Amino acid sequence: MKQKRKKPKFVRKDAHKKKRLKMKWRKPKGLQNKKRLGLRGYGKKVSIGYGTKKSEKHLSKDGLRIMRVQNVKELKSINKNTDAVLIAAVGTKKKLEIMQAAEKEGIKIINLKEVKKSIEKRKEDMKKRKEMKEAKKKKKKIEEKEEKSLEKKVEKEESEEEKRKLEKKEKDKVLTKKL
C-alpha cells in the first residue's frame, strides 16, 4: 500500500518562544507579520495545496481505512488488508480483549505502537490492582476483627463496672437501713 504524504507542522507565530501560546494554527493577521508575507524561514502557512488527495482522505499513514472499535464483535467485521483499528472509549479490560483478538487475527492497531508490550503491561497492571484489592480486603477484615475484640473487652469492662456499682448499691442499702 502507498504511504500518505507527510504535511508540515502548521504552528502559530512565536509559539515556540512563548509558553502561553499553544502549538496550534492561528492565521497570522499582522501587517508586517513575516509568516503572513510568506517569507522563507518563518514556517509554512496553511493553504489549499496541502490538502490530502481525495483517494487518500480518511486513511491512516499506511493507507488503511481507520475503523473505530469498541468491542470484539465489531473487530470481527474488519478486513485486515484494507482496515486498521482505532480502540477508543473503552476500559482496560475490554481494551485488553480487543488487543488480544486483533493480534491473533493480525489486524493493525493505530493508537498502539507495540501491541505485545502493551498487552503484557496491561495484564501486569490488572494483576497488581487485583493484588492491592485483595490486600485491602484482608486489611479491612483484620481491622474489623480488632474492632470486635475491642468492643468485647469494653463490654466486659463495662459489665464488671456495673457489677461493682450494683454491689455498692446493695451495701449502701444494708448500711442505710433503719432498724
Question: Keyphrases for this structure?
Answer:
single chain, 179 residues, mainly alpha, two-stranded parallel ribbon, 4 helices, 6% strand
Structure in words:
Among the domains are: 1-57, no CATH class; 58-112, no CATH class. The protein has four helices and two strands; from the N terminus they run H-E-H-E-H-H. It has helices at residues 34-37, 72-75, 92-105, 115-176, and strands at 65-69, 83-87. Helix 3 (92-105) runs antiparallel to helix 4 (115-176).
Write a brief caption for the model.
It is built from four helices and two strands, in the order H-E-H-E-H-H. The chain is mainly α and 179 residues long. Among the domains are: 1-57, no CATH class; 58-112, no CATH class.
Q: Report how far apart the termini are.
A: 117 Å
pLDDT averaged over residues: 90
Write out the strand line-up for the largest beta sheet, numbering strands in chain order.
1-2
Specify Rg, calculated over alpha carbons.
Answer: 36 Å
Instruction: Using the alpha-carbon principal axes, give the shape.
Output: elongated
Number of strands: 2
* Number of discrete helical segments: 4
Content of β-strand: 5-15%
